[in-house]
């Protein structure tokens, strides 16, 4: 939910056996996603429903990568442009900004989306770009 919202929270239930717990989970999954758990291999995105994200839980440390890169040796860009790019991709500043908005970085999958999930997002953005370009071309014609 939204930050500061008073609804939602934690729900703990006790079940007598595993099959009862699995059935409750499957019912909740269907309610939240509109898809049956048994059909998750052919998941269909539905409006106003949750969509599972593929998360990469690999131990990739982006900070180490950026710390090992010497921008002066790797780039022919002007120093001001290099400084701007370093500012935009400053992980510590991003973390501080997100924390100031009370965003829990351990629960948000930012930076941990799988390559497949990123490719799907890229395909959607490419399609949008094509539609916008075609619409602009049609209006000028």
TrEMBL record:
SUPFAM superfamilies: Domain of poly(ADP-ribose) polymerase (SSF47587), WGR domain-like (SSF142921)
EC number: 2.4.2.30
Group of enzyme by EC: transferase
Keywords carried by this UniProt record: ADP-ribosylation, DNA-binding, Glycosyltransferase, NAD, Repeat, Transferase
GO MF entries: DNA binding; NAD+ poly-ADP-ribosyltransferase activity; NAD+-protein mono-ADP-ribosyltransferase activity
Domain WGR: 1-50
InterPro entries tied to this protein: ARTD/PARP (IPR050800), Poly(ADP-ribose)pol_reg_dom (IPR004102), Poly(ADP-ribose)pol_reg_dom_sf (IPR036616), WGR_dom_sf (IPR036930), WGR_domain (IPR008893)
Domain of life the protein comes from: Eukaryota
Record protein name field: NAD(+) ADP-ribosyltransferase
Organism, as annotated: Rotaria sordida
